[in-house]
What does this fold into?
Amino acid sequence: MILVKDVKKIYELEKSQVVALDSVDMTIQKGEFAALKGPSGCGKTTLLNLIGALDIPTGGDIIIEDQNIAVMNKKKRLQFRAKNLGFIFQDFNLIPELTVYENVEIPLLISGIRHKKEKVMKVIEEVGLATHVHHRPGELSGGQRQRVSIARALVKEPPLILADEPTANLDSKTGQSIIELIQRLNKSHGITFIVATHDHFILEKIDRVIPMMDGRIMN
Ligand code: ADP
Ligand code: MG
It folds into this structure.
């Protein structure tokens, strides 16, 4: 379960402040597929970054896997991320010089996890790229690139995967197939997914939509 309690995030600029999140409360159950929806600038990315332990809130608590990540130091957060989280980005964030296999293997190498080739191959197969294992990102379509980034998020079987506008750079048909893939993985692996989006197709297909506006959750 993920518990977000009275979370505030203020970005300090040189001469002003931006209140990006203003007292956000939210609970997400284990295995849930939830979507944060709202206009550009409402705080979706900020909230995902906090839940993903990429940044710390100005105030409040964020409890994941029984740990309050809001009070962790940088090193602890890094360890927490490596153990518990997978990320899927709008622009895929793949390393162009590496093959599909090598990109997917990265999280295992970083964590120093000893692993077998079959483990990497299994997730590549799951996202439908078994025939493209030795391709580099530049040789793949946008949808295929996003599948690589999904396999990379999945390879360590984290309890939680966060996706920031995963279909924003894809045409609608490709975007739909990516969401259907994520939904399948959510069901078959029991991994919790939180997706930030304004993609109507996603919002129609998802049970739990969390509307945001001006740094708050609307109820
Ligand atoms: P969304 O993802 O919903 O578009 P963001 O979380 O990116 O929203 O942004 C929320 C608000 O915080 C916006 O007003 C944005 O300009 C501001 N913001 C986001 N990141 C920063 C930053 N690093 N420094 C200053 N302001 C920021
Ligand atoms: Mg955003």
Observations:
- The helical segments are 44-51, 74-84, 100-110, 117-126, 142-154, 172-189, 200-205.
- Residues 33 and 183 are 8 Å apart (CA to CA).
